[in-house]
Amino acid sequence: MNLSANLTALNTLRTTPIVDIKAENDTVKTFTMKDKLCAKAKPGQFIMLWIPGVDEIPLSVLNAGNGEVSVSVKAVGDATRHLHDMKTGGIVGVRGPFGTCFTESRGRVLLIGGGTGTAPLLFLAKRLAAKADRLSFVIGAKTKNELLFLNDLGSVCSEESVLATTEDGSYGLKCLATEPLEKLFDKEKFNLIYTCGPERMVRKVYDMTEKRKIALEASLERLMRCGIGLCGSCVIGKYRVCRDGPVFTAAQLSEVKDEFGVSRLGFDGSRIQP
Ligand SMILES: Cc1cc2nc3c(=O)[nH]c(=O)nc-3n(C[C@H](O)[C@H](O)[C@H](O)COP(=O)(O)OP(=O)(O)OC[C@H]3O[C@@H](n4cnc5c(N)ncnc54)[C@H](O)[C@@H]3O)c2cc1C
Ligand code: FES
Hints:
Helix content: 10-25%
Shape: globular
Order of helices and strands: HEEEEEEHEEHEHEEHEHEEEHEHEE
Mean pLDDT: 94
Bound molecules: flavin-adenine dinucleotide, FE2/S2 (inorganic) cluster
Distance between the termini: 30 Å
CATH class of the largest domain: Alpha Beta
CATH superfamily of the largest domain: Nucleotide-binding domain of ferredoxin-NADP reductase (FNR) module
Largest sheet: 7 strands, antiparallel
Low-confidence stretches: none
Number of helices: 8
Structural class: alpha/beta
Strand order of the largest sheet: 4-3-7-1-2-6-5
Number of strands: 18
Radius of gyration: 18 Å
């Protein structure tokens, strides 16, 4: 193994206390930790968070700066549930930040987020607020309770630029996040679209933007172990999501169309739905 000095530093596990915990809804909590390296993360990058005695998991950065890093975590299994049970002052470990980041574009941009996929896009939107001509946001979730960061988005983008969708119609439009897109594309010419969320949603956004030749950057998730391109558990086609992603361009995604939105490796190495 020949890791560069920089990667060696990023890849060294640093133990640190949780300095703040905020409940976003019934199943998602935001955790803030002190760490000088992770505090330098750019929008789109992820960290590996070690929950002592349980597991180490990849998480997108929600916020970074002033010596701190925050992640928003949905409780779905063993590691995330243990993390949700932890209190302020509890010790965790961090590695990273790792992976590619979103391009901080000028011009008119649209961000499309689903579930916890909204977290890295909110981080990006905060950075773009001073640069882009106009920011528009589409966020989708199953129910109103699962819509994340509505208030934060309203203050970053202006409320009229945020379009919310829920599958049960409990807030905003009753539909999937991808449904209003054709109309939006007819109305406005976007310089760049960013998306992150459930992979089938991301694939649909890709198909729609490809048809209209609109530039796209999308963040993907895969099972991750090492986080630095060595173990192969996050492979998609010729890419390793931890090293070559998680943020991919439309051109890169066009090379892995057979797998993107179709299948991924499960814990036992078998192919499962993303
Ligand atoms: C780059 C990246 C960024 C991520 N960012 C976030 C984030 O900001 N917030 C957040 O809540 N989660 C995020 N995730 C997903 C998170 O890593 C998993 O939810 C977590 O690892 C689950 O661990 P667990 O032990 O609680 O669940 P497990 O018991 O390991 O699994 C519970 C269920 O979740 C599924 N699962 C586990 N990991 C993944 C994955 N990577 N992709 C799809 N399904 C998975 C399993 O197949 C299983 O069905 C991210 C994943 C990646 C790769
Ligand atoms: S997680 Fe090991 S190669 Fe990506």
